[in-house]
Amino acid sequence: MINIAVLGYGTIGSGVIEVLKTNCESIAKRAGDQIDVKYVLDLREFPGDPIMEKLVHDVNTILEDPEVKIICEVMGGVEPAFTFVKSALLKGKSVVTSNKELVAKHGAELINMAKEHNLNFLFEASVGGGIPIIRPLNQSLTADEIVEITGILNGTTNYILSKMCDEGLGFEAALAEAQKLGYAERNPAADVEGHDACRKIAILSSLAFGMQVDYEDIYTEGITKITDIDILYSKALGAKIKLFATSIRDNDRVYAMVAPAMIKSNHPLFSVNDVFNGIFVRGNVIGDVMFYGSGAGKLPTASAVVADIVDAAKHFGKNIWTIWSSKKLELTDVNQVKHRFFLRVKGSAQDVKDQVAKLFGEVEEVKAEGIQGEYAFISESISEQDVKEKINKLADVLSLIRVRF
Amino acid sequence: MINIAVLGYGTIGSGVIEVLKTNCESIAKRAGDQIDVKYVLDLREFPGDPIMEKLVHDVNTILEDPEVKIICEVMGGVEPAFTFVKSALLKGKSVVTSNKELVAKHGAELINMAKEHNLNFLFEASVGGGIPIIRPLNQSLTADEIVEITGILNGTTNYILSKMCDEGLGFEAALAEAQKLGYAERNPAADVEGHDACRKIAILSSLAFGMQVDYEDIYTEGITKITDIDILYSKALGAKIKLFATSIRDNDRVYAMVAPAMIKSNHPLFSVNDVFNGIFVRGNVIGDVMFYGSGAGKLPTASAVVADIVDAAKHFGKNIWTIWSSKKLELTDVNQVKHRFFLRVKGSAQDVKDQVAKLFGEVEEVKAEGIQGEYAFISESISEQDVKEKINKLADVLSLIRVRF
């Protein structure tokens, strides 16, 4: 019997308990032994829930119990999770977590600490919910130098954009629907402003490049400025707008950004709709691969957490090597990055057209049915710096979206 | 330094040498040491190729050299690969292979042999080329009971079907083009008759269900009977025809089959076109996940082989657990499996329609522009046995394709 403790009895924590129960036999077979939840830590009480038998309010009960071999941290947030996880590792317990804030902030340190103590710190569920992406990056794509990772990493924003696209809803209406269905929180900022996707791409980039990518360094733009008119234009182009979290290596330079992008159907992430996530990886020998699945949700995320528990159980006394040094990777200034840009400028098409031609040279004009009083176009590939300077010279820019075709 | 030997200097073998050279530094970092190819086994000579320095014609030179720790078998075919791999394991060398025939036939035995000797037998490249699927099934989806695996596992047939769909080509013309581009062999039977996909789904099913699935037991139908007229109808339906290799668990029954399937855009494999492969997996807790990438090709496949070499190097003295017992899994008789079927029957629509209605009850009529002298429809969900009996009563059935919507 392998004793574990679950820190946090929220959505994911209760999912972990449920998955361990549902697939108890097959999990035991794969872990080599029965997994038993000895404690659940939560400050709350859950009257009537059978979990009460295992509930403790003091983390020290768990940390001081030598029978507990694996800690499953599913509380979220940096503190007190960080303190608890460090203490657990120092007490000789392996840790698995779904906590993206913790991993983005302290991943390198906790990985090293686990390594020093011949333990494991695993975090498959911190990115992409149930989708296997951390382990493939770590253990499958080891023959490659990764040159790009681009993900649709936030289910809430992908749901909102899908709704806007499929039903012609505006941003606010689509957000309201997402909130009604429980896909978006009452305070949706972490999702719609791109912060959630930003932490996740920071984690993936750190793993891909083996060095610390600080999420604070990543240019992050959410989807709040995307309107139903933008969607109309994207449809006219046969394109979709997705919130992309991207990290690209170009020789020794790496840049990373989170921002809406227009893509066409030849992009592998084009069909990733609703609350699903997709992660596209380009390696210098493997070429393009893509991973797709439920990026959030109780059971898919719990599935990834439990898979980490199984892996930790299979690797008692043996550290699973993860290359993520605490040395900081200096990202390239995003202003130097080049894209094509979709732009909408207020004014009569004929007036603006000339001004745009003077500033941007040759552009691709874009028209959408029924839209008047503005001029929309796609620029040639120019730098972020350049586009900023140019749009400063235009009177009223209604929209700026990066174009990936 | 870790000494390895490569058995077979064909496309994949030379790709392995190239990948090890190209990414030499990052691979050494991930493997924990420099990987050095000490020998390459091939019966042929390669005058002028630097490989000549390492070329040997006698496998015993390799087997008897205690410095060689990992054997990379990329010859293909069951024999002599099987004999060589067994001997290598008995001599204490771990083995990685891209050989689907070998793995489908002797996987269980070789996995057990590796386990007994505390070695590893790894075969990521045997299915889906570069796409990580074996390791995710083995190590990531361990919290789940797999209920379905469906793959587009053969790049050649997917290329042919994509060409037929995009350019309206007939089967023979599309095959000829695939042969011209080197995607199809001069004798294309293994691909177009579905045998290649059959071996691959046998491997994936054995891993998913932990027991031996014999490929000889899997109902296998290729794409040679698919015509440009079928494609016209599929387009009229907004559907595509793909060669699906499927294995589904329904309680304690498992059935597996390789056959063309009609799918619509809501299926995650709909956008897997050209020579790409995609593998869809449904778990009882994770829900649906999908893996996508280059299913063949020199470098993508070599990338997967080298990733296995890295994994073997990281696991000297420690067997990576793979659950694939030699106990045979008895598949459900495919005749009992139910689908909807797309059928085309020769004759004037009005005549056939009544006959069809009598036999099949309510059906969905399908029309394609410009096609006359036949009646096409999609049946309700009925068993394979049923559909066979019913079509025996029809004069001239032009086409029968399973429908997955």
- Poorly predicted runs of chain A: none
Overall domain count of chain A: 3
Outline of chain A: elongated
| Binned strand content of chain A | 25-35%
- How many distinct beta strands of chain A? 17
CATH architecture of the largest domain in chain A: 2-Layer Sandwich
Multimerization state: homodimer
The CATH superfamily of the largest domain in chain A bears the name Dihydrodipicolinate Reductase, domain 2
| Biggest interface, residues from each chain | A-B, 55 and 55 residues
Major β-sheet annotation of chain A: 11 strands, mixed
**Structural class label of chain A:** alpha/beta
Which value, in Å, is the CA radius of gyration of chain A?
Answer: 23 Å
What is the fold-level CATH name, i.e. the topology of the largest domain in chain A?
A: Dihydrodipicolinate Reductase, domain 2
Explain what you see:
The structure is a homodimer of 405-residue chains. Chain A has 14 helices and 17 strands. The radius of gyration of chain A is 23 Å and the shape is elongated. The first copy, chain A, has helices at residues 11-22, 24-31, 59-63, 81-90, 100-116, 134-140, 155-167, 171-180, 189-192, 195-209, 228-236, 298-314, 349-360, 384-392; strands at residues 2-7, 35-41, 55-56, 68-73, 94-97, 121-122, 146-152, 219-220, 239-250, 253-264, 276-283, 287-294, 338-346, 364-366, 374-378, 382-383, 397-403. Chain A is 37% helix and 25% strand. Chain A is of the alpha/beta class. At the A-B interface, helix 2, helix 6, strand 12 and helix 12 of A face helix 2, helix 6, strand 12 and helix 12 of B.
